[in-house]
Known about the structure:
Elements: H1 9-16, E1 22-25, H2 32-45, E2 53-57, H3 60-74, E3 82-85, H4 86-97, E4 108-110, H5 112-125, H6 135-147, H7 152-157, H8 159-167, H9 173-186, E5 189-191, H10 192-205, H11 207-216, E6 219-222, H12 230-240, E7 246-250, H13 265-273, E8 278-280, H14 290-300, E9 321-326, H15 329-347, E10 354-358, H16 364-373, E11 378-380, H17 390-403, H18 408-414, H19 424-437, H20 441-446, H21 448-452, H22 454-476, H23 479-489, H24 492-498, H25 502-523, H26 532-549, E12 556-560, E13 569-574, H27 591-605, E14 608-617, E15 619-622, E16 625-628, H28 633-637, E17 643-644, H29 658-665, H30 667-670, E18 701-704, E19 708-718, E20 721-728, E21 732-737, E22 744-745
Parallel strand pairs: 1-7, 1-8, 2-3, 2-6, 4-5, 6-7, 9-14, 9-17, 10-12, 10-13, 11-12, 13-14
Antiparallel strand pairs: 15-16, 18-19, 18-22, 19-20, 20-21
Helix pairs in contact: 1-2, 2-3, 4-10, 5-6, 5-9, 10-11, 10-12, 14-27, 15-16, 15-29, 17-18, 17-22, 22-23, 23-25, 23-26, 24-25
Bound molecules: adenosine-5'-triphosphate (ATP) and magnesium ion (MG).
Amino acid sequence: MDHLSLLNESQRQAVLHKEGPAMIIAGAGSGKTRVLTFRIAQLINQGVDPFNILALTFTNKAAKEMRHRIEKVIGNEAKNIWMGTFHSVFSRILRSEAEKIGYPRSFTIYDTDDSRTLIRNIVKEMNLDDKLYKPNVVLGRISSAKNKLISVKQYLNDAVIQADDEAAMRPKIGKIYEMYQSRCFRAGAMDFDDLLFQTNVLFKDHPDALNKYQNIFKYVMVDEYQDTNYSQYLITRKLAAQNRNIVVVGDDAQSIYAFRGADIQNILNFERDYPELEVFKLEQNYRSTKNIVHAANSVIKNNQAQLRKEVFTDNEQGPLIEVIKANSDNEEGKLVATTIFEEKMGNHFSYDDFAILYRTNAQSRAMEEALRRMNIKYKIIGGLSFYQRKEIKDLIAYLRLTVNPNDEQALRRVINYPKRGIGETTEQKLFVTANDTNHAVWEVVMNATEFLGNRVGTAIENFSIMIRDFARIAEHSDAFEVAKHVAKHSGIVDDLYQDKTVEGLARYENIQELLNGIKEYVDDPEKEDKSLSAFLQDIALITDADTKADDDGEFVTLMTIHSAKGLEFKNVFIVGMEENLFPSQMMLNSRADLEEERRLFYVAITRAEKKLYLTYATSRYQWGNLRACEKSRFLDEIDPKYINFKYGDSGASSGGNVFDRVLQRKSSLVAAPPRKQVASNYTPPADFKASDTSKLAAGMKVEHPKFGFGVVEKMDTQGNSTKAIINFEEVGEKTLLLSFAKLKIH
Ligand code: ATP
Ligand code: MG
């Protein structure tokens, strides 16, 4: 067999494994996905009908790629393999079996937005406090129940769950779950989690159906097995129960979806379920240079919870990993963009050979801006382009209304967001009345009590008063001042701040990022007109150009680390290597969380084939204020012999690495706009000793090894994390997380 020669001995054995359960838990880039692909081709070559093969991947893109590769080996027959994500394969199965479980064959699939809206309505109908029962929080709870196969009935009867909800002051979630399920059912709709949950119901309640699919799927394969949840685990276990031909591949060191219910326990369950299991070890990495592989090993060693394995490679040593320090997020973006440009020109790379990976979507803005300025084409994978995100569009809609109250699309978007009791019917009436009476909509809005009566009219008029208030401020303030005021007084910031889910925090950060962008716009000496309308025009042109130009050609890829799983690029930039960003502030509360965060870093490092860059900024805009940032602890976990690290405050001109050279040569391109200086002249005394800060309170005088002397202005505790807002004599106000800040109380 020709293609078998493209494999090493262990890979070949795994590919040739035909019957019975097998597991390949192996390091990144060791060819796990390649083995699955070749094994499928091999089975078909040996006469297995492609219709009898089920291969489950983590993304649709991965499925497409795998099918494509198999096609190269076996031709058209590859089309007949059951291949796709859990959700796509089982929604297809549910379509033909839906009636058995009481759903129409043409059931609708609700996306997250639909689900959220439905929950919002239910909360309203049940007269519950919508500040407490935030759609995302409720949906998160329901989703995690479903992924653990906890039905409504079980949820309501489970004392532990009920106690949890009561402790969280949300005792009615079970009831909402009940309503939500019955409403979905009545609407003939399933949400994403239902697709897996209902497949389990089908297989449990209809042994005939289960039996049918057990006979169809004689060979079951799962890629990225470490990130399956319980619901997915049970589906594969049931399907394989008869033939026991199941092969799973994964890497415990790359398990990064625990927050979505993925359960690393599934690997251990697998060993228990199939005692006859054959285990294959792949230890050779074919993707990356020695430096990258060794650096990744040195990082993951810091985790306690992992199956020990050492990955090696015969690939070249490769260049050292570059660690780059920038003065600001803005400069970080510029350094990345300039480096990409230089590398492409100097080493004949294509833009496709570059990926920029970040921890949170909000970080894409500074990168996007820098790439745009240098005319480098890019695409954002999984995640909307910054200006297309809902919360950004919402705030921009307010800004547009502020500048032009006749902007009807903007009005529709925010007249009832955040909620101010203006229902859809009323909204409709507004537009109908304007039409009928030949008035501009905004005129009807301003005089709503006259047109629509007191009850609904007052809410609308209050809205118009608020917008006019914004407009007055815009007359004599710059874009940033107005935007900050609008973000706060429109209620957007409050609304997002209440939502403590991962997604909620991301949206909150995005608003913050937009404000940072506006601040940078206002601070940019090249922009003469600092008004809000000038800014809006600027970004309208940007987004326009983006959507038009980006159809073909080569692109730099931008994405979160989560969506980069399984992929590889010649050159990878991991940006924002700072404490509280990566590791994320939300993941510092337990060892388990921190270890998940470290696995995420491991995933990020191991995407790189040739060259890896890690960048961080010593200051970053937050809510329009420049804040000092500390470099990530993860940087210190890499064995220094693999990196070209620039410690300390030696500045960008010492000529040590490629960035300095790039900076010097391209100084006209990368010159940062003048910025407030945040460095202090303070030098800590040699005997500096941090105090116990558990009793720290506003008004106390403190000393910090970097920022010097200051006075605590305010303490802010949320969950397990306490922040101190301190006004330092030399560097001004800083917000410090107490768990990290070294402070001496005077
Ligand atoms: P990840 O953990 O990131 O999902 P993986 O274990 O699935 O990685 P693959 O993506 O299958 O690894 O392989 C990594 C790279 O190494 C791919 O480019 C693949 O084509 C190449 N590769 C794998 N095995 C070999 C081999 N025996 N000879 C040459 N190249 C190989
Ligand atoms: Mg893979």
